[in-house]
Amino acid sequence: MLNSQLEILAQGQSYLKSVTREHYTAIIKPNFISCAGAHMRHIIDHYLAIMDGVNTDLIDYDIRFRGVGPEQDSLLASERLTEIAQWIKQLTDDDLEATIWVSTEVCISTRKVVRVQTSIARELVFAASHAVHHYAMIAQIAFAQKAPLPASFGLAPATATFLRQPDFDL
Q: How far does CA 96 lie from the centroid of its chain?
């Protein structure tokens, strides 16, 4: 599971090494309301929430750092992904199995926050799936910018497995 986390973070690193500052921060209206950098920052926010949660016993996904740092600077985003990968590499089985609380807003029409008990492993699985979803959004932004990306960028692991089936044909 930890290797899959590192693989997903490596996809982000690969994108960050290839993207121009202009493409990273551009908002392609009317099709998109945010830039690729905002999606990358959002991914980073979720991983940082897990890392902070280990120290406080509460993962709070509503803490966001919008408009600054990794959202505007792909080099800073790359540094954050490196820090996250280093943290993941030092996790033990006991760390992964540890129970922890997670807090997040769940309602659009009014402020409603729920707290549920979970595990670090479960939240890392969520963060990876969440990252892949946002990579898919970044891939669409890159497509609109006519910027090349690997076909596997933003592809869900289960979809990749499906596409590897010998009888699959587009």
A: 18
* Single-letter residue type at 96: L
Q: Does residue 14 sit in helix, strand or coil?
A: helix
CB-neighbour burial class of residue 53 (10 A; exposed 0-12, middle 13-18, buried 19+): buried
The answer to whether 43 and 70 are in contact (CB under 8 A) is no
For the stretch 52-64, pLDDT in tens is: 999 999 999 998 8
Amino acid identity of residue 100, one-letter, is I
Q: Which of 164, 141, 145 is nearest to 153 (CA)?
A: 141
The pLDDT of residue 169 is 65
Walk me through the domains of the chain, giving residue ranges and CATH numbers: 2-163 (1.20.120.450)
Cβ pair 30, 92 in contact under 8 A = no
Question: Is the whole model's pTM more than 0.90, yes or no?
Answer: yes
- Name the 3-class secondary structure at 115: strand
Length of the chain: 170
The β-bridge partners of 86 are none
